[in-house]
Design a protein that fits this description.
With 389 residues, the protein is α/β, with parallel strands linked by helices. It is built from seven helices and 16 strands.
Amino acid sequence: MSGRRRECNKCKGQFSKVKICSGCRSVYYCSLDCQKADWRLHKPECQLSIESQHPMTPRTPSNKNLPRQIPPTVPKKPVLERGHTTGSIVQPPPCPPKPRRSGHTFVKEPLRREDVPREFSRFQYIPSGEDQNRIDTNLLIIFPGVGPDFEQYVKLSKSLHIPQCCYLVLQPPYELPFNSGWSWFSIFDREANLILPTKFEKRRVKELSASRTHLAALVGTLIEAYGWAPGNIFFLGFSQGAIMGVDFLLHCRPVSHSGFGGCVAISDSLLDEALFPDFVVNYPDPILLPDKLTPLFISHGKNDQRIPVHIALQKHQKLSQIYTTVNQAEDLFLELFSKGHQMISSSTEAHATLKFLSDRMILHHRELDEASPDIVRIDPNDKIEIEPL
């Protein structure tokens, strides 16, 4: 290529002869060495671009021994082509079709380790009850905040007592230094310096996008292999986990065009970078916005010193603009409570949270469902309570 110069995605130099990544075909490199050095950071972004065009078919319990594969029309690891030159890529043979379950089942199969992306090194699936006559209708996926408190979130999920609801607690994929816990995106660089959001800082967005890719693969498996309907899948996140939940809802088009049942975001909501009008990348990415947004309930503390109320209101205003563009302003809720930067801390907040969920969850009646598709809504006052942690 001559004349026009392009920037190398790794060294940021300007070159007239560059190579293009054949996976996403959106970034350039001056050499194979730069491509290899940048692959760790570029890989999540590359895979997300690929999956948005070719949604991944997840493994199912019946083909669990097969390796997880990306779409057959794309090489497993992209190779480089010279920009604007002729050439071809040798494609791997097509993958055999994977079995898909159909029909309603009252008892869902427990989630298997081999069907969970390895980036989630720890998870806990909790069915709606121990009885084989139970009815697993709704699934609440819980995103912990930054730290080592995985077991506390498992305890929380067991205390919710929502009828016909299963729970899935996920440990975030990024391990923090000094064995201090886990996060959905790094908050420190390699020198243990805090990564502050600026309009030019892309690392937090890149790693959050990578977490989203892993989460999309998992949710896709839950839908395709385990029979969960998107409208019966709900999310609840605290702090950075709330950011993860909201980010996924705004970019879930490759998994569900119509969104999900609902999401609760506690003590945070939108990534700070979304508030920069001239941020270096387009975030949130409107290309991945679903046709219908997921109902969102935001719970925030009036005395929150980590995320002050005025920042929470700015984020709510930004989200309101997004929801208004698809005529869903009525599906966005914000309530302030007398607390700091905390998880659910009062019966008032617990009731508001559970009411939001119960208004959108459904209950199946086994005898009626065997004869007809009738459903009933959960009564917010029907045995829904929360035990103190």
